[in-house]
């Protein structure tokens, strides 16, 4: 559950940069959003592995 909380924090943290990029055409903010989305992808993969391990260990 700790990693899921990190996902929520990460998304909340990039909201301002996403607004800057989409509404104000700030390309540096776009770069920060892209990096955060990559971090989110890695974190999501870790969560998937953790869930699979927990599910399979119960059998």
Write a structural description.
With 59 residues, the protein is mainly alpha-helical. It has one domain. The protein has two helices and no strands. Helix 1 (2-24) runs antiparallel to helix 2 (27-57). The longest helix is centred in the C-terminal third of the chain and has 31 residues, at 27-57.
Q: β content, as a range?
A: under 5%
Mean pLDDT figure: 94
Question: What is the first-to-last residue Cα distance?
Answer: 21 Å
Note the overall shape: elongated
How many domain units?
Answer: 1
Q: What sequence of helices (H) and strands (E) makes up the elements?
A: HH
What does the radius of gyration come to? 15 Å
By DSSP (H or I, 4+ residues per run), the number of helices equals 2
Helix content: over 70%
Record keyword descriptors for this entry:
59 residues, mainly alpha, elongated
Helices and strands, with pairings:
Layout lengths: L1 H23 L2 H31 L2
Helix pairs in contact: 1-2
Q: What would you say about this model in short?
A:
The protein is mainly α.
């Amino acid at each position: 559950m700790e990693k899921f909380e990190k996902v929520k924090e990460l998304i909340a943290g990039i909201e301002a940069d996403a607004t800057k990029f989409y509404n104000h055409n700030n390309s540096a903010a776009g770069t920060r959003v892209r990096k955060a989305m990559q971090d989110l992808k890695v974190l999501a993969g870790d969560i998937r592995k953790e869930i699979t391990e927990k599910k399979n260990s119960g059998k």
